Amino acid sequence: MSENVLVVENLATTFHTKGGPVPAVGGVSFSLGPNETLGIVGESGSGKTVLSRTIMGLQPRTNVEVTGSVLLNGHQMVGVSEDEKRKHWATEVAMVFQDPMTSLNPVMRVGKQIDEVLRVRLGMPKDAAKARAIELLRLVGIPSPEERYSAYPGQLSGGMRQRVVIAIALACSPSLLMADEPTTGLDVTIQAQILNLIEQIKNDLNMSVILVTHDLGVVATRTTRLIVMYAGRIVEIGTTRDVFKDHRMPYTRALLESSPRVSNASHTRLQAIPGRPPNLLKLDQGCAFAPRCAFATQKCHEERPELEETGTPGHLFACWNPLTTKIGA
Amino acid sequence: MSNETAVSQVDKPEKRDPLGPLFWVCVGWATLTILASLLANWLPIESPITQDYTALNQGPTLHHLLGTDDLGRDILARIIFGGRISIGVGFGAMAIGFGIGAPLGMLTAYRRGRLDTIVTSVMYMLLAFPAIIATIAILSFWVPRALPKIIVVIGLASVPLVYRVIRTATLNVAAKDYVVAAKVQGASDRRILLKELLPNIFPIAISFLLIGIATVISLEGALAFLGLSVNPPTPSWGNMINEARTVLSTDPWLVIFPSLALCLFLLCLNFIGDRLRSYFDVTEVKL
Predict the structure, then answer these.
(1) In this model, does residue A2 exceed pLDDT 60?
(2) Chain A: nearest CA to B156, how far in angstroms?
(3) pLDDT 10s digits, B244-274
(4) What are the sequence ranges of the domains in chain B?
(5) A118 CB neighbour count, 10 Å cutoff
(6) Closest residue, chain A, to B186 (C-alpha)
(7) At A70, phi and psi to the nearest 5?
(8) Best residue in B115, B178, B188, B204 to probe A by mutation, most A CBs within 10 Å?
(9) How many CB pairs under 8 A join A and B?
C-alpha cells in the first residue's frame, strides 16, 4: 500500500465551557490508506461528529482547543490558518452532511452550486463548469441532469438532494470523502441507494471514505475497518470483520447486541445498554465505560486502559478485562 | 370538451396570485403617494405656501379639493409636499440605519468572537435607552433644524434595531449546513457573506426595511407634533397635524386629511412588508 491519505495522531478537541473543559475528543490516533473505507461508530454524544469536524478543521472560532496532528496527504490541518486549510478543502477532502434538507442553499439553483465550486476552485470557464456540473449530476444518478441543473433544492426530493450534495463533494475529485451520517435524514430504501452510490464512486474515483454513523447495519458490509468510539476516545479499532466477530471490548458487544437482527425471533427484546453516556465534564480517571460495564472490576474504576494490540495485528482495544469468546462466528 | 374543462380546473390554482389583490392595492397606493411627492413640482397643484385670502379655513370645495387652513393654504398641496419630508425621512433614515446596522450585523454574526461580544453589548445598551428621548434631546439643542439633521439623528437611532434583526437572521442562517458546506468547498468569507448569507436573510431584511420606514415616518410625525421636525412653513404630515390640532373642533378636515395620508401610507407599508415576509417564509414549508 502506498502512503496513507490521512494520519491522525493524538488528536484532542476540548471545548472550554462555563462548567469547565469538555474533552469531546481525547487522544485519538488512526490512519487511513488509499481507497479504504473506515467506519466510525458510537452512540450519540460519543464524539463521532466532533472528531469528523475536527479532522476537517471545522471548529467553532471560540472556546475550543485542538491539539495533536492531522496529516492530510502530508499536509498538517491542525493549528494552521483558515486560508491554509482552504487550499485543501474540496480538492483533497470533501464532506457530505447529515441532513440534505439543510446542506444546500435554498435560494441558489443546484447546478449553480456545483459549478461555483468548479469555477472558484479550479478556475474553470463558465461553459466548461456547466458541462462538468451536468456530468457530475449524471454521475450521481440524477435523471435528466440538464433539467435538474436549473432546479432549486426545494424542487428535489431528499434522496435527490443528497445526490446533489455528493456531486458537489466530488466536484474537485478529493482523495478523501468524509460522510457524517449521510443517510440519517433519508428513508430506508434511499439509504441503501445513497450508500451504494458512495461505495461505487469510491471505487471508480479511487477515493478513501470515512463513514460516520450510529447505524451498525450501514458499516457492516461497506467498510474495511471500523473504529468504535466512547466518550470521545477510541475503545476498539480493527478490520470490520474483527470488530464484528471477535470484539474484545464489552462496549462493542453491548453496542452490537443493542441493534436488531433479522436472525432474532420476532418480538425479541433488544438488549439496551444500562445507564447513560457519561458526562464529559465529570470523567474520572478510570475507564469511561466502567460505570455501565457488566465486567468492570476495581481496576477499571481507577485506571484508564490504553489502546493495545493483542493477538490480531491492527486490532486494538482499550480494556482491562477483554472478552475472549467469539460470538456468532 | 369535458376534458378541456377538467384541464382548466386543474390549472387554476397554480395561477392564483399568492400575494393577494390587497397586496397590489397597497403597492399601488404606496407608489402613488411616493410618485406624487416626488413629482410635486410638476403636478397641477398650488405651492404649499401660497396663501389664498379669498378662502380661509374653508372645507373641501371644487377649487381646494381638501380645503384650506387658517392662512388659506391648499391642504392637498401641503399633503403632497409634506409627503416629501415624511417619506424622505423614512427612506433616508432607514438607508443610514441599514447602511451601518446591516453590514455590521452580518459581519459580527458570521465572525463571532470578541468583536461580536463587544459590538452586540454596545448595541443592546443603546437599545435599552429609549430612542425617542434621545432624538428629542438631540433635536432640541441641534438648531437650526433641517431635514438632513433629522434624517441623520433618526437614522443613527435606528442602527441598533437594524443590527439586532440582521444579526439574529444571520446567526440563524450561518448555523445551517449549507454555509459550512460552502466553507469546506473552499469559499472565501466574502463569498459566503454575499452569496450564501445575504440572499437568505434578504426576505427578512426587506420586510423589516418596509416596516422600519413606516415606524420612522410615524416617529417623524411624533417629533413634528412636538415641534421638533422641519421648521414652518415647510409642511410635513406630522407638523400639519400639530398645527391643526388647536382647531380640531371647528375645522376637523385640517387634521383628518393629513392623518389619513399618514395612516394609509403606513398601513400600506406595513401590509406589504408583512405579506412579503410570509410569502418568502412559506417557500420551504410549501414544498
Answers:
(1) no
(2) 30
(3) 878 888 888 888 888 888 889 989 988 888 8
(4) 72-286
(5) 24
(6) A86
(7) -125, 115
(8) B178
(9) 75
Write the ipTM: 0.72
Among A318, A324, A248, A252, smallest CA distance to A287 is for: A318
Is beta strand A64-72 parallel, antiparallel or unpaired with respect to A75-76? antiparallel
Interface test with chain B among A59, A102, A181, by most B beta carbons within 10 Å: A102
Is the CB of residue B47 less than 8 Å away from at least one CB of chain A? no
C-alpha B268/C-alpha B111 separation (Å) is 37
Helix (H) or strand (E) holding A212: strand A208-213
Give bridge partners of residue A12 from the DSSP assignment.
Answer: A67
Residues in chain B closer than 8 A to A98 (CB atoms): 177
pLDDT at A268 over 80: no
Q: Is B287 an interface residue toward A (CB < 8 Å)?
A: yes
Rounded mean pLDDT of B100-126?
90
Q: Give the C-alpha separation, B281 to B287, whole Å.
A: 12
- Report chain A residues whose CB lies below 8 A from the CB of B185: 89-90, 94, 116-117, 120-121, 168, 171-172
Taking the Cβ of residue B281 and every Cβ of chain A, the question of whether any pair is shorter than 8 Å is answered with no
Q: What is the pLDDT of residues B57-78, one digit of tens each?
A: 777 777 777 777 777 788 888 8
The candidate with the shortest Cα–Cα distance to A317, out of A216, A227, A256, A213, is: A227
List, in order, residues 6 or more apart from A143 with CB less than 8 Å away. none
Q: Is B72 exposed, middle or buried (0-12, 13-18, 19+ CB in 10 A)?
A: middle
> In this structure, what C-alpha cell is assigned to residue A111?
447546478
Distance of CA A263 to the CA centre of its chain: 28
Mean predicted confidence (pLDDT) in A128-139: 90
Architecture of domain B72-286: Orthogonal Bundle (1.10)
User: Which of B178, B191, B202 comes nearest A103 by C-beta?
Assistant: B178
Q: Regarding the domain delimited by A6-317, which CATH topology (the fold level of the hierarchy) does it fall under?
A: Rossmann fold (3.40.50)
CA angle A148, A150, A155 (to 5 degrees): 65
